Predict the structure of N-acetyltransferase.
Amino acid sequence: MTIRERGPADDDAIRSLNDAAFGGTYESRLIVDLRDAGLASIELVSLDGTEVVGHILLSALDVTVAGKPVRSLALAPMSVQPGRQRQGVGSALVREALRRAQQQGWQAVIVLGHPDYYPRFGFSAALARPLTSPFSGDAFMALELTPDALKGGEGRVVYPPAFGI
Ligand SMILES: CC(C)(COP(=O)(O)OP(=O)(O)OC[C@H]1O[C@@H](n2cnc3c(N)ncnc32)[C@H](O)[C@@H]1OP(=O)(O)O)[C@@H](O)C(=O)NCCC(=O)NCCS
């Protein structure tokens, strides 16, 4: 299994993978819309030989704390081929994406996802709770890549139109 940056030649496989994993087309449209909006910042695929078996996208997100911008990413979507789930493919993608995000100087990552899955990578619903956003509850989680990036005042998350929120 190898992980590398997405290239345009992967796009048909990425679309099929997302449609199969989610059982619909919202996520594959979201991916294209985020790329078109110039927001796709980290996009990786996991390969078994030449076959794309996993995909993750992190896109630039408007987050401010105490009126100051915090360089943040939204983790969405991510998917693993149905027949390849629960074999560590997703975890390897998340860890590599977060490593790259930190290396590139991003300060925080926000995710709306399975509350039992993302905490193992350091995501916390408690950290996201004070942020004003369209989401709330245990599925809305945040991770700081630099210490206290999301603390120090009132926080706000604004999703770009691509999300259709
Ligand atoms: C969620 C997903 C990306 C995880 O990838 P994966 O390669 O299966 O995950 P890993 O093998 O790295 O990790 C397996 C762990 O994830 C957990 N997990 C997998 N799918 C889960 C789900 N739907 N809800 C909660 N936990 C889940 C399992 O409990 C497992 O934990 P365990 O090892 O303690 O049993 C993958 O299952 C998937 O594509 N699901 C459908 C699409 C989706 O829901 N995407 C995420 C949107 S937030």
